[in-house]
Design a protein that fits this description.
Blueprint (H helix, E strand, L loop, with lengths): L1 H17 L5 H18 L6 H4 L3 H8 L4 H15 L3 H8 L2 H13 L4 H17 L4 H9 L3 H7 L6 H18 L2 H4 L3 H7 L7 H14 L6 H15 L5 H11 L6
Helix pairs in contact: 1-2, 2-5, 4-5, 5-8, 6-8, 7-8, 8-11, 10-11, 11-14, 13-14, 14-16, 15-16
Amino acid sequence: ALVSTQSTGIESLFNILNQDYSSDEMMVKVKHAALSALRNLSICEAAKPLIVPYLSVIINYVTSDMPMLVYKAVGCVRCLTRGNKDIATQLTRNSTLVANLVELVDKYKYHNGIQGEVPRLLSTLVVEGQMDVSIIQALVACDIIPHLLHMTTIKEYPQVQVEGWLAIQKILQMQGNTQLISSNIVKFCEDCLPDDTNPNVRILALSILRLFSPHLSKEDELEKVSEHLNRLALSESDVPAQLLASQIKQSPPFN
């Protein structure tokens, strides 16, 4: 009975999205309310299967010209994609959609919600999707890397930092490091090593730094990274970071 009630409610929300309204102002308000409800429902595991059949309808709003609707639609797609390999795999193969998502960040620079949600959706697509090297290359070609790296700088939200690093880690594992060296990734890793960094974020940054350490050649980079490694190798408050920092110190160019 509960599932039937949820199904009816979700169907009603999509009927609201499909209706015509007397004014643009009324349309935006009502559709924003409907998408907000769908965004909240898409967090619920029981409701997700009932919303997924309407995924194409939600995606249409991702590329609309109304930022209030774009924001809620992107959030809804992200929540539906989380934990769903099939949806993530399907969407990563839609290069037009990925390119449009990247463009949204530039188009709506004034909208903090879109600035936050779009990179998180891109990260979720990478982390959850099943892909091969060609798909990874297509995603990188859409210029998603700068947005993933920016996620790692948002220290007030460690979960966002973790999501960014996990996506970068998967790309590195699939693609190799050549596409990322030019993005000054070492600097982003370094910025996630101080003591005030969330431990989960720091261990991911160290893991990626270990992949890049053989490529370090600039004296200033070596000096700054060495200072962090020396401090972490002596730290007893974060044992995983202590062990990994010690391992990196024993490898070129630090040994």
